[in-house]
């Protein structure tokens, strides 16, 4: 619901703030007073096109701000949260038009694009002007209106689930076929790479181990010569370290017999002997085993060359080579399983297509049944609204598909195009005169007739339409008398389901207002200014009387006004 509209420096408006309420909000005023300015500014803040010409002369920018109560409105909440904007029950939309052409939009004080503003605006209010593109003139919305009127959401959800399942299977099939082709293109390459890696058969840490062995073989002479020298120094030659340690130990033993403080040192000397013995044995053992193997040396060098070649080619390490081999091995094996996988997916598609087709047919039949009721009701309302020879038809089109493999729905051996809403392509058709050909609703030319058609549609669809607010700019164009009363009653009935804001010139409509506003043009500081204010009950009577008799209000017009306002 629109709670508050604030307009600054817009056309003839200096600054106005108007508070709307639930029910039927009527706006009246003399011709040229600026009633349409109010609607134009509302249209602007809902995301329609902007023009710097609307900026009041002498000002640098125009501002329009609208406050909406969107409590429990999940649709608006989802839109705003998807835009990554904080959601509040009090929704604030603001539009700023700058003289230099800058156009700034805000949703809950967060900068937003015009498209985002329009998306939110479309969800909170439907504005029906004489020339604006109205939501009911969008053919793509007609199927939703039929579903909402018929309470078919459960059937739609059932079908959509089947459609989504089938859609997912088609995607899986496409991905599998793509992968199959990609693998077929790579098969020769993979086969070569697998053979190349398997012939070498690398092992984890093999390079490190071979390089260590290579170092030993390449330094055999030094290792052999040096270990011989060490063994001699430690054990064999005269005055070897072992012999000298024995002499030291003996002398320490003699000293310890004199002074017990040498006992510990004597033991350390014995330990040193043991350590030297162990070192000598290790060196002797190492020296006895080490041998030079030129064939092994060449083999290692050749092996390292192979391993390093693989490493450079497939990732920089043997681990990456082994991982890559595992990967392409799996893909190579997978190539042989594609035929089975593809066949299985096609069987699933056929199974799910049958389910989807059954649900699409059930939904389509229900829509056609509901449509007959809608058609009959709307023709009657149009008749009440003065279009007595009107015809209204909801046309269904089911388009056959030339692609049997990718069709979502099959009925009686024929394949049909489908989307997430079913196989039905729905559009409203209308004829306003006897013998006139039915035409798409969008091609109806007369503004007054469009208004009444919109009004009749809104009346029959009121309970199902989820829009919280409807605004009508001069809904009464081209009507008077008894028809005006009918139009007023339609608006009144609609206000039981929606907040209604309507501009009118007719007393029959104004008299039914729950809240009545008047737009006036005044001279302030030698400039013309448009204002809007809410009328009291007494002022309402006078305004309705004025609509009846003109500027001169008579007792008769006052009495007529009171009579009209009784309902």
Summarize the structure in words.
The chain is of the alpha+beta class. Among the domains are: 136-175 and 348-437, no CATH class; 201-335, no CATH class. The chain has helices spanning 35-45, 74-82, 114-124, 139-150, 153-200, 206-218, 220-236, 241-258, 263-289, 294-313, 318-335, 338-384, 447-461, 481-494, 507-510, 537-549, 555-565, and strands at residues 2-10, 13-19, 24-29, 61-69, 90-98, 103-107, 110-112, 125-128, 391-397, 409-411, 414-416, 425-431, 439-440, 469-472, 499-503, 515-524, 527-534. A six-stranded antiparallel sheet has the order 2-1-4-5-6-7, covered by helices on one side. The longest helix is centred in the first third of the chain and has 48 residues, at 153-200. It is elongated and about 150 Å long.
Q: Structural class of the helix and strand makeup? A: alpha+beta
Low-confidence stretches: none
In total, how many beta strands? Answer: 17
Alpha carbon gyration radius: 46 Å
The N- to C-terminal Cα distance equals 25 Å
What can be said about the biggest beta sheet?
Answer: 6 strands, antiparallel
The oligomeric state of the chains shown is: single chain
The helix content, as a percent range, equals 40-55%
Q: Give the DSSP E fraction (strand runs of 2 or more residues).
A: 15-25%
Number of helices: 17
Anisotropy-based shape: elongated
* Strand line-up in the sheet with most strands: 2-1-4-5-6-7
Mean pLDDT comes to 88
């Amino acid at each position: 619901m629109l709670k508050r509209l604030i307009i600054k420096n817009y056309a003839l408006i200096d600054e106005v703030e108007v508070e709307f309420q639930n029910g039927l909000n009527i706006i009246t005023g003399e011709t040229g007073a600026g009633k349409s300015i109010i609607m134009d500014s509302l249209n602007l803040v809902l995301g329609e096109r902007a023009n710097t010409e609307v900026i009041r002369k002498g000002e640098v920018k125009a501002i329009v701000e609208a406050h909406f109560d969107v409590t429990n409105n999940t649709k608006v909440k989802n839109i705003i949260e998807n835009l990554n904007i904080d959601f509040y029950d009090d929704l604030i939309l603001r539009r700023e038009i700058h003289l230099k052409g800058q156009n700034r939009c805000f949703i809950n004080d967060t900068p937003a694009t015009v498209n985002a503003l329009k998306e939110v605006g479309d969800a909170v209010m439907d504005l029906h002007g004489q020339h604006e593109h109205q939501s009911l003139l969008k053919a793509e919305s007609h199927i939703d209106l039929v579903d909402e009127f018929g309470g078919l959401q459960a059937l739609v959800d059932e079908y959509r689930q089947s459609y989504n399942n089938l859609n997912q299977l088609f995607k899986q099939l496409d991905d599998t076929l793509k992968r199959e082709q990609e693998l077929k293109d790579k098969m020769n390459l993979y086969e070569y790479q697998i053979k190349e890696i398997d012939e070498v058969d690398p092992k984890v840490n093999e390079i490190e181990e071979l390089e260590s062995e290579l170092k030993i073989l390449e330094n055999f002479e030094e290792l052999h010569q040096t270990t011989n020298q060490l063994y001699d120094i430690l054990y064999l030659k005269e005055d070897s370290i072992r012999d000298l340690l024995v002499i030291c130990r003996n002398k320490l033993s003699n000293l310890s017999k004199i002074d017990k403080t040498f006992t510990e040192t004597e033991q350390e000397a014995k330990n040193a002997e043991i350590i030297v013995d162990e070192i000598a044995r290790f060196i002797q053992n190492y020296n006895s085993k080490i041998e030079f193997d030129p064939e092994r040396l060449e083999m290692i060098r050749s092996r390292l060359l192979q391993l390093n070649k693989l490493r450079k080619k497939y990732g920089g390490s043997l681990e990456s080579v082994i991982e890559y081999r595992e990967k392409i091995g799996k893909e190579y094996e997978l190539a042989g399983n594609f035929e089975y996988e593809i066949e299985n997916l096609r069987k699933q598609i056929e199974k799910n297509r049958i389910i989807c087709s059954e649900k699409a047919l059930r939904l389509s039949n229900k829509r056609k049944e509901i449509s007959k009721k809608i058609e009959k009701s709307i023709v009657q309302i149009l008749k009440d609204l003065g279009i007595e020879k009107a015809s209204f038809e909801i046309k269904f089109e089911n388009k056959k598909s030339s692609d049997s493999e990718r069709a979502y729905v099959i009925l009686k051996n024929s394949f049909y195009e489908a989307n997430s809403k079913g196989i039905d392509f729905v559009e409203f058709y209308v004829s306003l005169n006897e013998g006139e050909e039915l035409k798409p609703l969008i091609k109806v030319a007369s503004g007054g007739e469009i208004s009444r058609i919109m009004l009749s549609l809104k009346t029959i669809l009121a309970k199902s339409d989820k829009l919280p607010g409807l605004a009508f700019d001069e809904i009464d164009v081209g009507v008077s008398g008894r028809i005006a009363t009918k139009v007023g009653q339609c608006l009144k009935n609609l206000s039981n389901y929606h907040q209604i804001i309507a501009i009118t010139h007719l007393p029959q409509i104004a008299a039914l207002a729950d809240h009545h506003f008047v737009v006036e043009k005044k001279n302030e500081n030698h400039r013309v200014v448009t204002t809007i204010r809410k009328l009291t009950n007494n002022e309402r009577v006078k305004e309705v009387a004025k609509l009846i008799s003109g500027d001169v209000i008579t007792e008769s017009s006052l009495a007529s006004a009171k009579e009209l306002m009784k309902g």
